[in-house]
Design a protein that fits this description.
Length: about 250
């Protein structure tokens, strides 16, 4: 029950501020390690050569784009069900990061597709559904900003986010449901990994690094959302003054 007190923005704001440096530091360290392993330690692919190394950014970014959308929708659903302000704020803070990873997945996919398929873009089922995901993130953000009333904006964007969840399994299973150019999953819970151990380790490290980055950025953004929406200048000043008071003692 001790965590229930952090459901209030006034209590969550200083907690988020303390957590951000830790997650950011871990993200930087893991990203350096993951990129080094992926680009310098992992062996060259026997079919695609060196061009395959883009997967160490592309695949974790694609995973994060889908997972963050689900997390955003969950926060939006909790906000609607419990009428919780912090849940709506978290959903609002997640959307830009999810959109960034979706764009990164599409960009790196195009960079990978050019040497592999001979084209920057094809209207492949997975690529098209991933592009739709980017439009969904944009729709959530635009819908929120287009409505002046915060309660209506929260609920309207939450409904939009919840309806859009149907696209996530379409993205994931698109290579199984349709005949696509996109290759199947190299890592699966059912069949395990088809990759070399070094490749898999580098990809998992990059995935965790992206997670740590996401948490740090989302916490920083939700603090901005709190100040902007809740006019929290009074308790914001108190939160800033608390470390000084402790040092004075």
């Amino acid at each position: 029950m001790i965590w229930s007190k952090y459901s209030a923005p006034q209590a969550f704001y200083p907690l988020a501020g303390r957590l951000i440096p830790w997650f950011a530091t871990v993200a930087v360290i893991l990203m350096v390690v993951g990129l080094y392993m992926g680009f310098f330690v992992a062996p060259t692919d026997f079919q695609q050569g060196e061009s395959y190394r883009i997967i160490f950014v592309h695949v974790p970014a694609a995973w994060m784009s889908m997972f963050l959308y689900v997390v955003m929708a969950v926060w939006a659903g909790v906000g609607m069900g419990l009428n919780a302000r912090l849940s709506f704020m978290m959903a609002q803070a997640i959307a830009p990061t999810g959109a960034m990873f979706t764009f990164l997945a599409l960009l790196t996919g195009a960079m990978w597709g050019k040497p592999t398929w001979g084209a920057w873009w094809v209207w492949d089922a997975r690529l098209t559904s991933e592009l739709i995901l980017l439009f969904q993130y944009a729709g959530v953000m635009l819908l929120r900003t287009s409505i002046d009333d915060l309660r209506r904006a929260d609920r309207s964007s939450a409904v939009f986010a919840l309806v859009g969840v149907v696209n996530v399994p379409i993205i994931y299973y698109s290579v199984q449901w349709w005949n696509t150019l996109h290759q199947g999953a190299s890592v699966s819970m059912a069949t395990g990994s088809k990759m070399a151990a070094t490749m898999l380790m580098a990809m998992l490290i990059m995935t965790i690094a992206f997670w740590m980055y996401s948490i740090a950025v989302i916490l920083a953004r939700v603090r901005c959302v709190m100040v902007e929406r809740e006019s929290l200048s009074t308790w914001d000043e108190k939160a800033a003054a608390m470390p000084q008071a402790v040092e004075a003692r």
